[in-house]
Automatic annotation (TrEMBL):
It comes from Marivita lacus. Assembles around the rod to form the L-ring and probably protects the motor/basal body from shearing forces during rotation. It is found in: Bacterial flagellum basal body. This is Flagellar P-ring protein. Transmembrane segments: none annotated.
Length: 364
């Protein structure tokens, strides 16, 4: 029943995907319009004794001394600096395209030392730099931790990852990345899933849209658009990204062996094969009986173990799947045998090994 349900769902998804139309913006990225990664090193304070141990994290000690020195507090000895309420962290963020000065962005804070939890901590001012070493944003604020950790004298419990936290809108953009979109005479579209047919369809749809632009497919993953009027480029791009196109789907079978999930594309074809599936189940149960001597007799109480073994063999079904069948016929043939989802995985792998499955079989 589970296998039948999964295969039915796979058929519905596969058939719908093959004929669906999507917006161009959902299957391509525009050249130059992308996010940039930022990273920074900072300190989280206000932890309830769950921060870094300064003996095992010398970089945390150096950071605390440097921070206090800049604030006018210095010359602290090792005996005077024993805090466990501070943790050294790495701060990461994605600077979105066309981000302007003063715009807030989300940041992720990750422990760098041996802190047990960042719960209740506050990130102090942390510059975030790009790959060129320039500061593009500054982060600060209270942390939101998804996990938690609790421990006692003899046991502890940890849920999630308490050493990673987020701060929504926790950084302010301080530097903009110059990118004049309207000054470009052409732009390239990069397909997220490169395919010759899909790239050809995108170029055709754009050329038939009566816009002041012409499209040309350069390769399976790139379509170049040339604009006759540079000043109208943003307006034309806004129209192009909302054009509808039918992407071509590859014949593929995806199997998740851990959960038993199977997804089969609509274009999958199978040559004529005969499939048989049988199963043997051996059940072993252990029990014990007690043998006691008669009253006033000489003897000992004896425990006698008993083992019951039962062998059950399911009748194997046999189904013949015709040549060059469609997905629906494949589903009907496998359902006729009444196999489970995990047995279907073995069947698909065997069909692929026999050379009868004309699709890419991907096991994850």
């Amino acid at each position: 029943m589970v296998g039948r349900l999964l295969l039915t769902i796979a058929f519905i998804l596969g058939a719908g995907f093959a004929t669906a139309e999507v917006r161009i913006k959902d299957i391509v990225t525009f050249e130059g319009v992308r996010a940039n990664q930022l990273v920074g090193y900072g300190l989280v304070v206000g932890l309830d004794g769950s921060g870094d141990s300064l003996r095992n994290s010398p970089f945390t000690r150096s950071s605390i001394e440097g921070m206090l020195g800049r604030l006018g507090v210095g010359n602290l000895s090792d005996e005077e600096l024993r805090t466990r309420n501070t943790a050294a962290v790495m701060v990461t963020a994605d600077l979105p395209p066309f981000a302007r000065r003063g715009m807030p962005v989300d940041i992720v804070v990750s422990s760098l030392g041996d802190a047990r939890s960042l719960h209740g901590g506050v990130l102090i001012v942390t510059p975030l730099v790009g790959a060129d070493g320039e500061v593009y944003a500054v982060g600060q604020g209270p942390l939101a931790v998804g996990g938690f950790a609790a421990e006692g004298a003899a046991a502890q419990i940890v849920s999630g990852v308490p050493t990673v936290a987020r701060i929504d809108n926790g950084a302010i953009v301080e530097r903009e990345i110059d990118f004049a979109l309207s000054s470009l005479g052409s732009i390239r579209l990069a397909l997220r899933n490169p395919d010759l047919t899909t790239a050809y369809r995108i170029a055709t749809v754009i050329n038939e849209a009566s816009l002041p632009a012409s499209a040309q497919m350069l390769d399976p993953g790139t379509v170049e658009i040339a604009f006759s009027e540079k000043s109208r480029m943003p307006d034309v791009l806004a129209q192009i990204e909302n054009l509808m196109v039918s992407p071509a789907a590859s014949a593929r079978v995806v199997v998740d062996s851990k959960s038993g999930t199977i997804v089969i594309g609509a274009d999958v074809r199978i040559d004529e094969v005969a499939i048989s599936q049988g199963g043997l189940t051996v059940s072993i149960s252990e029990s014990a009986s007690v043998s006691q001597p008669e009253p006033f007799s000489i003897g000992e109480t004896v425990i006698i173990p008993q083992t019951d073994i039962a062998v059950m063999q399911r009748e194997s079904g046999f189904a013949v799947v015709g040549g060059q069948v469609s997905l629906q016929e494949l589903v009907d043939g496998l359902n006729a045998i009444g196999v489970s989802a995990r047995e279907i995985i073995s069947i698909l792998q065997a069909i692929k090994a026999a050379g009868a499955l004309h699709a890419d079989l991907k096991v994850i």
